[in-house]
Amino acid sequence: MAKEVGKGKRVRLFVALDLPATVRAGIGAWGERELADPALRRVREDSLHVTFAFLGSREEGEVESVVAAVRAGGDAPAPLLELLDPVQRPPRGRARLFALPVLSAGAEQMQAAVAERLVEAGLYELEKRPFWPHVTVARSRSERGSQMVAERPPGELPEALREPFYGVRLTLYRSQLQPTGARYAPLAQVELPGAGGSEVI
Question: Which of 20, 105, 154, 178 counts the most CB atoms within 10 A of its CB?
Fold first, then answer.
């Protein structure tokens, strides 16, 4: 049960694992070719990440408690990640989004630890479905209330993006919904050991 707080300004929050800039740039270049179908809206290059916990709309006064949980995750070593070819979700019928699945035992362990701290703080409720590490790369546009269908779904990743790499930081993001799509603003970041240091920003 989430703890009760006084009414006040609310913010949409989520905790994510950030990708190296070189990997984001590689996904962006691939997306220019493979996500060009007009039915798709690409995720901005600087918004590519692996979501660990979506907290939804929270009281602004709870932000510091979430920051503390994120900072506590900075002691864990940077997880090794491997991207797989794009898949659609849901897997059948009209796609709502396309994502790159991520193979990473380390990321799964880190997500479980972060989620546990958030649950203990009364800030998060575990989802019933298992954690699925992935990077969302595009969402389907809507037309007259239904999802548009991409005539040319994205193709395979190039070999360069199949190479394993390390996640670089844990970040608490604020999500701001806009007509052109959500924009994410970092509220707190922790650089992970083994991926450029462990400084808390």
Answer: 154
